[in-house]
TrEMBL record, chain A:
InterPro entries: U3_snoRNA-assocProt_15_C, WD40/YVTN_repeat-like_dom_sf, WD40_repeat_dom_sf, WD40_rpt. It comes from Raphidocelis subcapitata. PANTHER family: U3 SMALL NUCLEOLAR RNA-ASSOCIATED PROTEIN 15 HOMOLOG, UTP15 U3 SMALL NUCLEOLAR RNA-ASSOCIATED PROTEIN 15 FAMILY MEMBER. This is U3 small nucleolar RNA-associated protein 15 C-terminal domain-containing protein. One of its GO terms (cellular component) is nucleolus. GO terms for biological process: positive regulation of transcription by RNA polymerase I; rRNA processing.
TrEMBL record, chain B:
It holds the Pfam family Beta-prop_WDR75_2nd. Keywords: Nucleus, Repeat, Ribosome biogenesis, rRNA processing, Transcription, WD repeat. Residues 336-545 form the WD repeat-containing protein 75 second beta-propeller domain. GO terms for cellular component: small-subunit processome. This is WD repeat-containing protein 75 second beta-propeller domain-containing protein. The lineage of its organism: Eukaryota, Viridiplantae, Chlorophyta, core chlorophytes, Chlorophyceae. It comes from Raphidocelis subcapitata. Signal peptide: none annotated.
Length: 543, 869
């Protein structure tokens, strides 16, 4: 009928309304970047670059090394340690077959990422070279150095083609235009980003020092990036981001001031963002530990993630399946999206997978035929035969009695072991479970039995749970009474165990904070009440 | 009309040897149930008082001896003539046409009586128990009988000679029950501490004539050996041996049926039966089947071979115990749409009882908990008994599609706090109904919706809006939020607004029938609010001296009648009583009184409220306000009312209350008082021995019932008022039982048709639920069913003023107010006492400003008073 007498009714865990009323698709998408793989490097992770080719290995520059991680497994593949001093800005060539990195000694080196051989050493910078990028034609490379010059190299010959002089301070960032293989943007600590045409070789006359265009950011420029269209660019410096219309003559479109500290890195991904919105996303990391995501239609902030340390570098894989962040304390965090949208490359991977599956299917059929031949009492499969057979319509089916699977606290509650049930509920670390169990115990009159007779080790999880949740309005009504009981009963146990004392102090602090908050709210209410009543009196009577 | 419902497990059951049907005494009838299907298949009626025991005649195996019919009645007549009074009864078939009755003497002693069934001649008996016997058991062979006294277990051999003296098996704790094994060698008895004593070879003691003690080892000189089994934490409620004698079954407040294997001492359990076990009946024909009676008015047929429950018969759930603060527990409602009677039972469940077919329909576990007996710690023995989780309020929407409940449970704090929980439920939609058995599914749960206790819960008849009032001074209006987009589920409930009136504790809440007004009772003032804007519309004070000088309408003290509507006869008596009461000086002042009930009249602009003193002492006052003039129309005093409701289709209010009428001779009355004092003392005992208290519950209930039936008739009275006059339109008396609630049957339900309700605009029939959970339908005057029986002529305005009341000054000035004549001093509040007003001018203005007449008119009267001076 309604419920069987004799069956145990499971403890019903309270369900609370959702905390936020609206969960945006954007927030849902960025929260799907889960399962962070954390790797600790020796020094701060200054640069992360994803290989443009599948499977999107990524090169991480930290301290004197460049590490190449596997894009699939996120495991370390290679370590390049051919630097006498600090390494800077390791980047991939478009085809993923070469890797270039600058160094503190001013030498720009070109590596084979598989063999780790040094293929070229480009000497020319008088001081540290912080940035190096391959050109789209695969044969040239631009590097920027602290000697306030950007140099244009021919890799095949290993010679400098020209130097782009015009900056008056360190050149720390470079970006190649997606629209033209000859247009480059350099960012410098002289507060400007300059657009260059390498065909002119930097020898274009005029006061601009050879640059086609100079964009005044207003603060030392830490990073520059072009939009996928090539028509716009973004510069990061100070605690602002500037969006420039490059085609429109270097007009400042938008200044984004969403950061507390210096913005250190920007990245653009045409595929990031939820399905519904096609616009690319701009990611920016800052020394305040935040990585913020902007959409590029209205340049509004759509998502923000907090990292435990200042963010020095970020990278997002071309299919937007991996999001990496390098922190100043040497932590490299790489998150994988549960369902990357992928691009053509992902489709190719799927096709490869399907092909492999077909091959496996052929092999599987043969294996199955073999298995059928081997069906005799000497195989284990023989004893499992018929398990999956469905009952025919006329058969009398005996329903298997399914035993309800009980949670540990339910098992204890069923056996009236109230103290053990409370311990099991605390072990789940879910405040809702503990709440429901405490209420159930109170309704049964079993709370004294559950709370009494605990030693310091038994009391510790309970007091810690109380300290953590007693100020939460959802659990306060239940936990306040329990806290009073515990404090009353275990007053003699104070100062017998250091950890217990610490937990009790935490409980006291939580309660004191709550009392302070209530006092402040009462004060605010007292201040507001005359205003409100005056407003009500002034408002016209009626509906 | 026959009473339906009722408690079927209060008395011992009996079932036929073939195990096909069992018999349950219930009220004046014996109900016959099928053990296979649990259907109620017949009723044996004929007794004029309640049937207290039922037993099968061993000679005629197919016919139960339902209380012995003629023989039993004859015996009772003889006993009454001898000055005895029937009390605790058991009929046990002895061997060879012998029946034994256990009676309780009026002075507290017990009495045993043997009868020859063939001619009804009493046997001479030498069993003289000291106190009332707590049971009577016969061995299956019928040769031995046992009856536990308080600390003594009397055992004797049955027989005609009756000269053999009974043997006393003494025990240091009070016995609760006993049972014989089938071979007449072992006697089992349970006590209040949960122990089960097994007296082996008790026949030897009978032969030697010496009894035994539970603490003696036995074996020496024929004294029986006693062994003890202990599992129960609460008193043993019932005991039975299996027909083969290998197993002993016991049950108690733990709701667990325990099967003891006597040879090895092993136990098997059938746990979580849902209510305390009060009786176990083995089936003679089928060794594995047992009939189990539970205190929650449930009978289960269990198969112990398979450890399964085969059949369950649910009666109407009994009242949950009252709450520690003295507030009444439980609630009763009628479900619109389905027409089910909804009662709150123990363990926080709502039972949906089909009142037309008199059978259990469904059950809703409001707090999803396993039924467990409460643990009482040794440390808290002196503390009051803990609160049991229970539902205290339930309200339906007009269509019955939504349900709001308030349930209470003990809080987690040490101070005995109460946690209130407000829950909103939805009826499943048509597609879901087939799959789920629950009548409602949870929509929203609000824990601790108010800082204080919730005193009232009201559902708007017009919209999905509900209101709760609390004694912390706030009321809250709850509304259903719009359902989320792209979702099938219904919208959740949210608190829409909070209001308070001078921070006074609120005691009542009611919506008007179109949902446009919300009335909230704040102290003695009824406040009217707009539930949409949360704006105060009006405040209606109760008359200042309400209850003191108001015309008293007392109970209709009519005699006879079996719970039927009484017409004019009762009401004439009523008039006399009113005159008597009017001559008496005024009652006690009701400064502390507060509005506990409010209801809008359906087809007239009136609001009615019930003013109760705290704790229900001193009676209530029914106040009716006219909403057009915003003044008191009339008020009258009533005894403490248990129920108050407004007719949904006519301008009528129903009020139910209980009162006792003593009809016993002088001597018996003294004995009553003694016994009452005893009972009070028992109740005042601190519960240091909770087991004893619990153990005394059953006999105490019996005695109370006896008193009800015999001498002081406790009667439930249902009065029907029209808002136009304080004279009741109709009075109905339930004889012999106290009324627990009177509910208006919602129109459009099967119950409405069964009650003979008329069309739209007619008065709605009432369902009166008695305290023993039997119920009857009361047809209304004017409806078709009532036309012949209870065509009550309109009562003359009994409560209207008679001579001797001076006209007030204001009345002289303004003439007679239209509707202000009912009660002196109540009209308008401003003209409370004109005499005093004449002496003291200030008294003219002794009323809230909004209740005063306009200054232009008041000024004239003031001048007149001054000139007179």
């Amino acid at each position: 009928m309604d419920y069987d007498a004799g069956t145990y009714r499971k403890l019903v865990v309270k369900q609370y309304p959702a905390r936020s009323l609206r969960e945006t698709a954007e927030g849902k998408y960025w929260k799907r970047f889960a399962a962070p793989s954390v790797a600790k490097q020796i020094g701060g992770v200054s640069h992360i670059d994803f290989c443009p080719q599948q499977p999107y290995h990524y090169a991480v520059t930290a301290s004197t090394r460049v590490m190449i991680y596997d894009g699939q497994t996120r495991q370390l593949r290679r370590t390049i340690a051919r630097f006498k001093d600090k390494a800077y800005g390791a980047t991939w060539r478009e085809d993923g077959k070469l890797l270039a990195a600058g160094g503190q000694d001013g030498i720009v080196q070109v590596f084979d990422p598989n063999s780790r051989n040094v293929l070229r050493q480009l000497r020319g910078h008088a001081r540290a070279a912080h940035a190096a990028r391959f050109a789209g034609d695969r044969t040239h490379l631009l590097s920027g150095g602290d000697d306030v010059v950007a140099r244009w190299w021919d890799i095949t010959a290993g010679k400098q083609v020209c130097r782009l002089a015009g900056h008056t301070d360190y050149v720390r960032s470079l970006a190649a235009s997606p629209a033209s293989s000859d247009a480059w943007l350099t960012g410098s600590y002289d507060h400007t980003a300059k657009l260059w045409d390498v065909r002119a070789g930097g020898s274009r006359g005029g006061g601009g020092g050879g640059a086609v265009m100079s964009l005044d950011h207003g603060a030392p420029v830490e990073d520059v990036a072009f939009f996928p269209s090539g028509g716009m660019a973004v510069t990061a410096g100070g605690n602002t981001l500037c969006i420039w219309d490059v085609l429109g003559g270097g007009r400042l479109l938008k200044r984004l001031a969403n950061f507390q500290k210096t913005v250190t890195c920007v990245a653009l991904s045409p595929l990031a963002g939820p399905e519904a919105s096609a616009a690319p996303r701009l990611l920016a990391g800052s020394l305040d530990g935040h990585v913020k995501v902007f959409e590029l239609d209205g340049f509004t902030l759509t998502h923000a993630t907090k990292y435990p340390a200042p963010v020095l570098s970020i990278g997002i894989s071309p299919d937007a399946g991996l999001l990496a962040a390098g922190l100043a304390d040497g932590t490299l965090t790489v998150r994988r999206h549960a369902r990357p949208r992928g691009g053509g490359g992902a489709g190719g991977a799927a096709a490869v997978g399907a092909g492999g599956g077909a091959a496996g299917g052929v092999g599987g059929r043969a294996a199955r035929r073999r298995a059928r031949l081997e069906m005799n009492a000497s195989t284990f499969r023989y004893f499992l035969r018929g398990r999956s057979t469905r009952a025919a319509p006329g058969d009398f089916a005996v329903a298997a009695r399914r035993r309800a699977r009980l949670a540990p606290y339910d098992k204890m509650l069923k056996r009236f072991l109230y103290r053990d049930a409370l311990d099991a509920a605390l072990a789940t670390r879910q405040a809702g479970v503990v709440d429901a169990l405490l209420e159930e115990l109170a309704a049964r009159g079993g709370l004294p039995a559950a709370l009494s007779g605990r030693d310091a080790a038994g009391l510790l999880p309970l007091v810690r749970h109380l300290a953590r949740h007693v100020a939460n309005p959802r659990h306060a009504a239940t936990l306040a009474g329990v806290a009073a009981r515990v404090v009353d009963a275990y007053a003699p146990a104070v100062a017998t165990d250091a950890r217990l004392d610490a937990a009790l102090c935490a409980l006291r602090d939580a309660l004191a904070g709550e009392v302070r908050l209530a006092d402040e709210l009462a004060a605010i209410q007292g201040a507001l009440e005359p205003i409100l009543s005056a407003g009500l009196a002034a408002a016209p009577a009626g509906r | 009309m026959a009473l339906k419902g009722g408690l079927i497990t209060r008395r011992q059951l009996c079932w036929t040897p073939d195990g096909r049907v069992f018999f349950a005494p219930c009220g004046r009838d014996v109900r016959v149930y099928s053990a296979q299907s649990g259907e109620h298949i017949g009723t044996l009626s004929g007794h004029t008082a309640s049937v207290t025991a039922v037993a099968l005649d061993p000679q005629a195996e197919t016919q139960p001896r339902a209380g012995g019919e003629a023989r039993h009645k004859r015996a009772r007549g003889a006993l009454l003539a001898g000055g005895h009074r029937e009390g605790h009864h058991q009929v046990v078939s002895g061997p060879a046409e012998l029946a034994y009755l256990s009676l309780s003497h009026r002075l507290g002693a017990g009495k045993l009586l043997g009868l020859r069934l063939s001619d009804g001649v009493p046997l001479s008996s030498s069993v003289r128990p000291r106190g009332p016997l707590r049971g009577l058991a016969a061995s299956p062979s019928g040769r031995y009988l046992a009856a536990p006294d308080r600390f003594s277990l009397w055992v004797w051999a049955a027989g005609e000679d009756g000269e053999r003296r009974p043997v006393n098996f003494h025990h240091v704790r009070a016995y609760t029950c006993c049972a014989f094994d089938p071979t007449d060698t072992v006697l089992a008895a349970g006590d209040v501490s949960g122990r089960i004593m097994l007296w082996h070879n008790f026949r030897a003691a009978l032969a030697s004539g010496e009894g035994g003690k539970s603490n003696s080892a036995g074996g020496r000189g024929g004294a029986p050996a006693c062994t003890t089994l202990h599992w129960h934490a609460h008193p043993v409620g019932c005991l039975a041996f299996s027909p083969d004698g290998n197993h002993l079954l016991s049950g108690g407040a733990e709701s667990v049926l325990v099967q003891w294997q006597l040879a090895t001492g092993k136990r098997n359990y059938l746990p979580r039966l849902g209510g305390p076990l009060v009786g176990i009946l083995p089936c003679a024909g089928d060794a594995g089947r047992y009939c189990i009676a539970q205190a929650d008015n449930t009978v289960r047929v269990v198969n112990l071979a398979a450890m399964q429950i085969e059949t369950t018969v649910h009666g109407v759930r009994p009242h949950p115990p009252p709450r520690p603060g003295g507030a009444p527990g439980g609630c009763v409602a009628l479900q619109p749409g389905g027409g089910a009677l909804v009662v709150a039972g123990p363990n926080a469940l709502l039972q949906f009882f089909d009142a037309v077919r008199d059978r259990h329909a469904a059950r809703l576990q409001v707090a999803p908990r396993n039924p467990v007996s409460l643990t009482r710690d040794a440390a808290s023995a002196g503390a009051p008994p803990p609160l049991e989780p229970q539902v205290v309020a339930a309200a339906f929407s007009a269509s019955g599609g939504a349900l709001a409940t308030v349930d209470v449970a003990p809080g987690t704090g040490a101070g005995g706090g109460v946690q209130h929980s407000l829950k909103f439920w939805d009826a499943p939609t048509a597609g879901v109904r087939a799959s789920s058995a629950a009548p409602y599914s949870l929509n929203t749960r609000a824990d601790a919706p108010h800082a204080g206790a919730i005193t009232a819960l009201a559902f708007s008849p017009a919209a999905d809006v509900a209101a709760t009032a609390s004694d912390d001074g706030e009321f809250r209006v709850w509304a259903r939020a719009p359902p989320p987009r792209h979702s099938e589920r219904a919208g959740r409930w949210r608190c829409r607004s909070v209001g308070s009136y001078k921070r006074r504790p609120l005691g009542a809440a009611a919506f008007s029938w179109d949902g446009s007004l919300l009335a909230v009772g704040a102290g003695t003032t009824a406040t009217l609010w707009d539930p949409e804007t949360n704006a105060l519309v009006a405040a209606l004070p109760a008359p200042c001296g309400a209850g003191a000088g108001a015309a008293a309408v007392s109970a209709a003290a009519g005699d006879g009648g079996d719970g039927e509507a009484q017409g004019a006869a009762g009401q004439q008596q009523q008039q006399q009583q009113q005159q008597q009461q009017q001559q008496q000086p005024g009652g006690q002042p009701q400064r502390q009184a507060a509005l506990t009930q409010l209801a809008f009249s359906a087809r007239s602009p009136h609001l009615a409220g019930l003013l109760s003193a705290p704790g229900g002492a001193g009676g209530d006052t029914l106040v009716v306000w006219d909403l057009l003039t915003l003044s008191v129309a009339w008020s009258c005093s009533l005894p403490h009312c248990v129920s108050f409701s407004a007719d949904p289709s006519a301008a009528l209010f129903a009020v139910a209350f209980n009162h006792s009428i003593s009809k016993a001779p002088q001597g018996a009355q003294q004995a009553d008082q003694q016994q009452q004092q005893q009972q009070q003392q028992q109740q005042q005992q601190p519960p240091q021995q909770p087991d004893q208290q619990q153990q005394q519950q059953a006999p105490g209930a019996d005695e109370q019932q006896t008193r009800t039936a015999r001498r002081t008739q406790r009667r439930g009275t249902v009065l029907l008022f029209s808002p136009s006059s304080p004279a009741p339109v109709m009075a109905s008396v339930l004889v012999g039982t106290a009324v627990a609630a009177a509910l208006h049957v919602p129109p459009g339900t099967p119950l409405y048709a069964a009650a003979g309700g008329g069309g739209a605009g007619c008065a709605t029939p009432l369902l009166a639920l008695a305290e023993d959970r039997s119920y009857a339908l009361i047809a209304q005057p004017g409806s078709g069913a009532a036309a012949g029986a209870a065509a009550a002529p309109p009562v003359p305005a009994a409560a209207a003023r008679s001579g001797g009341v001076e006209e007030s000054v204001l009345e002289a000035v303004f003439g007679q107010p239209a509707a202000a004549h009912a009660a002196r001093g109540t009209a308008g509040g401003a003209v409370h006492d004109a005499r005093a007003a004449a002496r003291q001018v200030a008294a003219l203005f002794d009323a809230p400003s909004h209740a005063l007449p306009p200054p232009s008119r008041l000024c004239a009267s003031l001048l007149e008073v001054l000139l007179e001076k």
